[in-house]
Specification:
Length: 210
């Protein structure tokens, strides 16, 4: 029991309650399962309580629920003002894929995370705009795919489908680049061999002339 508690006594245990992944035990749950659930729930609140500065404790002293405590702190430090919403929307539309520093999958994840931040600030970005943002500023290698995606039916053009197509295309581009690099290496080796053969022939001719 202690080993299991120690394994869950971290941020993931706390966060699972905040995002409501850790569901209450069903009625048929065993006493052990109920005890462990209550322990994790209490641990969530304790983690938050012990992790903030003492001057902010009054903000959450009225509750012992971790999710409620988190929401109160969030409202205090991240007000859903129009100014903040404007900044988040600007940041969303400024997102750009950087193939040098990230994979296309990570870029899609950044778009998803920013979309969630905008929603939490009080506005939900339409599905069409999310899908368009994913393909709006891609490198030229993706031009053919982008044109194909533009021709999708409205019901098929969503950010999940676009993300799947982008990941597949990234794999194809990576494989093609690998093949090109291999061809370049083979050509360099072949050229080197020809030069060695030419040098050998020249040396042989020089010896015969002597």
């Amino acid at each position: 029991m202690e080993g299991r508690h120690e394994g869950r006594a971290d941020g993931s245990c706390c966060w699972s309650f905040i995002i409501e992944e850790d569901k209450p035990c069903p009625e048929q749950a065993t006493e052990k399962e109920k005890f462990e659930y209550d322990w994790r729930k209490q641990r969530c609140y304790t983690t938050i309580y012990q992790g903030i500065e003492r001057k902010f404790l009054p903000l959450i002293r009225h509750t012992t629920d971790g999710k409620e405590a988190w929401n109160h702190l969030k409202c205090n430090f991240e007000p859903t003002s129009k100014a903040r919403l404007a900044v988040l929307i600007d940041e969303f539309f400024e997102l750009k894929f950087n193939p040098v520093e990230e994979t296309i999958g990570i870029f899609c994840k950044r778009v998803e995370e920013k979309k969630i931040q905008v929603k939490e600030a009080g506005f939900e970005i339409p599905e069409l705009l999310i899908a368009l943002q994913l393909i709006r500023r891609l490198p030229v290698e993706y031009d053919h795919l982008v044109q194909t995606l533009y021709r999708l039916k409205d019901e098929e053009f969503n950010h999940r489908e676009v993300e799947k197509q982008l990941v597949n295309e990234a794999g194809r581009i990576q494989l093609k680049q690998k093949d090109l690099n291999l061809d370049h290496t083979e050509n360099a080796y072949t050229v080197g061999s020809f030069r060695q053969q030419e040098l050998a022939r020249n040396l042989l001719n020089a010896v015969e002339q002597c």
